[in-house]
């Protein structure tokens, strides 16, 4: 009886070794960077952590498909290294010596990636399923609300428009004042014109300045002396 039991266990061990090995069909490699992620709070990878990993994979398979009956014992780990990397496969308990298709395992892992990461206090970068693409990270929300940014832009444009109108108005007013001043200066200067009557040049009377025609002034002086 003991020999039969030992033989059975040996057969199972050999079968598991054939199913779970590097680059085996439907096998996935996992690499963990616990020290990088947690620093001084890093935990040791031991049999308990392996059990938790198997449990999380079984959970993911059951969560992915309601028809799945995956047990913890159906998840096989192999080639575990001290730097914490290993391979795993998920076997189909309903069939002998058969693994679950890799596409189903990948879909289940992707669907429950955050739950698995949280169980080990890691992220997609520190808990890597090398054949499974990382899940999309949630969009980063800006620290400043979008509506506040839009309001600030509109306010800046409005202020810039007001400043432009004020400056343009001031320039226009200065231009008008300058033209008006130049016009007044021209009127005050009043250009003096000279006309000739009977062969005698006569200067036009500048009414504003009270200018006296020089011809009449000379006549007045002559008659006065007489």
TrEMBL record:
Keywords: Cell membrane, Glycoprotein, Membrane, Phosphoprotein, Signal, Transmembrane, Transmembrane helix. Residues 24-226 form the Collectrin-like domain. GO terms for biological process: positive regulation of amino acid transport. Its main location: membrane. It is a single-pass type I membrane protein. It is found in: Cell membrane. The chain crosses the membrane at residues 146-170. Pfam families: Collectrin. GO terms for cellular component: extracellular exosome; plasma membrane. Residues 1-17 form the signal peptide. PANTHER family: COLLECTRIN (PTHR46884). This is TMM27 protein. It comes from Ibidorhyncha struthersii. The gene is Tmem27.
């Amino acid at each position: 009886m003991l020999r039969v039991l030992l033989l059975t266990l040996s057969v199972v061990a050999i079968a598991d070794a054939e199913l779970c090995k590097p680059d085996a069909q439907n096998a996935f490699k996992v690499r963990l960077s616990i020290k990088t992620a947690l620093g001084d709070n890093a935990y040791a990878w031991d049999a308990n952590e392996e059990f938790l990993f198997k449990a999380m994979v079984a959970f993911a398979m059951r969560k992915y498909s309601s028809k799945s009956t995956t047990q913890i014992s159906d998840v096989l780990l192999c080639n575990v290294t001290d730097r914490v990397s290993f391979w795993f496969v998920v076997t189909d308990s309903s069939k002998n010596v058969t693994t679950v298709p890799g596409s189903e395992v990948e879909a289940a892992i992707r669907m429950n990636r955050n739950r698995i990461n949280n169980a080990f206090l890691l992220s997609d970068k520190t808990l890597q399923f090398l054949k499974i693409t990382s899940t999309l990270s949630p969009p980063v929300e800006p620290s400043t609300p979008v509506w506040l940014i839009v309001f600030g832009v509109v306010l800046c444009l409005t202020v810039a428009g007001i400043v432009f109108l004020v400056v343009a108005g001031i320039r226009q007013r200065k231009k008008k004042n300058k033209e008006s001043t130049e016009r007044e200066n021209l009127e005050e200067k009043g250009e003096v014109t000279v006309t000739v009557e009977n062969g005698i040049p006569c200067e036009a009377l500048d009414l504003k300045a009270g200018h006296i025609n020089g011809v009449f002034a000379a006549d007045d002086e002559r008659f006065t002396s007489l």
